[in-house]
From TrEMBL:
The lineage of its organism: unclassified sequences, metagenomes, ecological metagenomes. Residues 53-121 form the POTRA domain. The chain crosses the membrane at residues 30-48. The keyword rRNA-binding does not apply. It comes from freshwater metagenome. Keywords: Cell cycle, Cell division, Cell membrane, Membrane, Transmembrane, Transmembrane helix. This is Unannotated protein.
């Protein structure tokens, strides 16, 4: 009786063996899957660092004031770097630190070409810095740097002092909006835009005359009125044009 009870039913033994074998196969499949993932990731990492995915060429588009070398120096990307390691947003941010750059974008291609497209700022006026040196300023008040040989004449803004290159001039919005809105014909007559101590604006004309713009408000209307006045009024002996109210401009002349 005891020998018979000690014997294991063959069906139970087979079932136990099947369970053990299944666990072993699951463990082996799991190990194989992990090894495949590791191999795939390692292969992808090695492939991304291979010459097949290097930066083969870098092109710069949109420059006129700056050179492509200026942009490339700021971008700090070299031919031969892994393309997948290039952070497009970070490269664009570095390029946008250049004073003359308004915006930059970076495009990567699977052919190995990196394209940097920039939009340059436009100088609308000159100011003087703390040392008295003339500097160019764009419409947003950004100090761009000293005028160069390629720069045409720019209207001078008086009454404000520019800071270092790359900074913004405080309190310049009205005067620079005026410089931007002037039509070519009127611009040729304007010698300077003057920011008075109380914040009001004046235009000094050549060869003579002052335009009172008053507060830096309603500037599009005031300058549109100025264009009409200067196109219709005899400007000989012109003393002042008052445009504080652009709907009723007042012209005064120098007594003879």
């Amino acid at each position: 009786m005891s020998n018979r009870s000690a014997e294991v039913d063959p069906r139970i033994a087979a079932r136990r063996e099947a369970v053990v074998s299944e666990k072993r196969r699951k463990r082996e499949r799991w190990i194989i899957a992990v090894l495949v993932v590791i191999a795939a990731l390692g292969g992808a990492w090695l492939l991304s660092r291979s010459a097949l995915f290097d930066v083969d060429r870098i092109t710069v588009e949109g420059t006129s004031r700056l050179s492509a070398d200026d942009v490339l120096a700021a971008a700090a990307v070299q031919v031969g770097e892994p393309m997948l390691a290039v952070n497009s947003s970070e490269v664009a941010r570095r390029v946008e630190t250049l004073p003359w750059i308004a915006s930059a974008s970076v495009d990567r291609s699977i052919a190995g070409e990196l394209t940097i497209v920039v939009v340059e700022r436009t100088a609308v006026a000159t100011m003087v810095d703390e040392s008295g040196t003339p500097v160019l300023v764009d419409g947003s008040g950004r100090v761009l740097g000293p005028p160069g040989l390629i720069d045409g004449p720019a209207i001078q803004v008086e009454g404000l002092v520019a800071g270092p290159v790359g900074t913004d001039v405080e309190g310049s919005a009205g005067s620079l909006e005026t410089a931007t809105l002037l039509t070519p014909g009127v611009r040729s007559r304007v010698m300077a835009i003057v920011v008075l101590p109380d914040g009001n604006l004046e235009l000094r004309l050549r060869p003579q005359g002052i335009v009172d713009l008053g507060p830096p408000t309603n500037l599009p209307e005031k300058l549109a009125s100025l264009t009409i006045v200067m196109g219709q009024v005899d400007q000989r002996d012109l003393a002042r044009i008052n445009l504080v109210n652009p709907e009723t401009p007042v012209v005064s002349r120098t007594p003879k």
